[in-house]
């Protein structure tokens, strides 16, 4: 059983398994040493005293270790993995640049809306990008409910509203992701303005220091060095089960 988990864990994309591992770690800490979570929270006053880690650590806590937390982790893996695999290959650096954009804009939202932790908004932003770029995937939700992925963000918001969960974080994540797509995909085409072009030094850093730890991305990257670029079709759908 441990070997099966080991094999499954190693097949997960690099950022997905790293992020989920941190969620589990801080979930355990929150379970047994809840006072330590204060050091992870977003606190603008503390950031100005050079506690810079608070700009990022508030994305890595999504609840204390519990049975419901495990099910929530499965959903988080679904969100991050589907988004990450879209970028793996020669454009893997674009994924990390997007993550950096989400973190920094999310920090502004945390300050405006007074949120100590923003992992839910972060995950919603990732799933929103995936749904916009892969709108014709079939998602199977709870109770056998099926729909195209383009409707998934709205179904998720409605589900959270019905089950009395926090939809403000959903809306924050939607706003962050929508602004990213506007700057990354829309403006370069309509107005020839590329405000979120990944800098070359950032690409070089990711390709040199990060891709080597992501086997799937590394294989795709190596293949693309020897192949002519092919047009990617974002409109091929396949069934994806969730829940």
TrEMBL record:
Its main location: endoplasmic reticulum. It is found in: Endoplasmic reticulum membrane. The keyword Endoplasmic reticulum applies. It holds the Pfam family DER1. One of its GO terms (biological process) is response to stress. InterPro entries: DER1. One of its GO terms (cellular component) is endoplasmic reticulum membrane. The chain crosses the membrane at residues 20-39, 59-80, 115-131. Keywords: Endoplasmic reticulum, Membrane, Transmembrane, Transmembrane helix. May be involved in the degradation of misfolded endoplasmic reticulum (ER) luminal proteins. Belongs to the derlin family. This is Derlin. It comes from Paramecium pentaurelia.
């Amino acid at each position: 059983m441990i070997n099966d988990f080991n094999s499954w864990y190693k097949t997960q994309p690099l950022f997905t398994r790293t992020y989920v591992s941190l969620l589990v770690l801080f979930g355990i800490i929150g379970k047994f040493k809840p006072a330590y979570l204060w050091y992870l929270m977003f606190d603008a006053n503390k950031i100005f005293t050079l506690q810079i880690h608070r700009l990022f650590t508030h994305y890595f806590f999504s609840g204390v270790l519990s049975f419901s937390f495990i099910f929530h982790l499965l959903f988080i893996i679904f969100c991050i993995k589907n988004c990450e695999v879209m970028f793996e290959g020669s454009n893997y650096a674009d994924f990390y640049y997007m993550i950096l954009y989400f973190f920094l804009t999310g920090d502004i939202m945390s300050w405006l809306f007074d949120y100590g932790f923003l992992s839910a908004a972060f995950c919603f932003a990732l799933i929103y990008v995936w749904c916009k770029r892969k709108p014709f995937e079939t998602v199977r939700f709870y109770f056998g409910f099926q729909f195209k992925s383009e409707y998934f963000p709205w179904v998720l918001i409605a589900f959270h509203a019905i089950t009395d969960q926090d939809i403000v974080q959903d809306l924050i994540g939607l706003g962050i992701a929508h602004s990213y797509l506007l700057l990354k995909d829309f403006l370069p085409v309509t107005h020839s303005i590329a405000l979120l072009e990944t800098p070359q030094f950032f690409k070089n850093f990711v390709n040199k220091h990060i891709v080597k730890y992501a086997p799937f991305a590394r294989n795709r990257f190596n293949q693309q060095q020897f192949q002519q670029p092919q047009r990617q079709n974002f409109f091929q759908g396949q069934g994806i089960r969730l829940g």
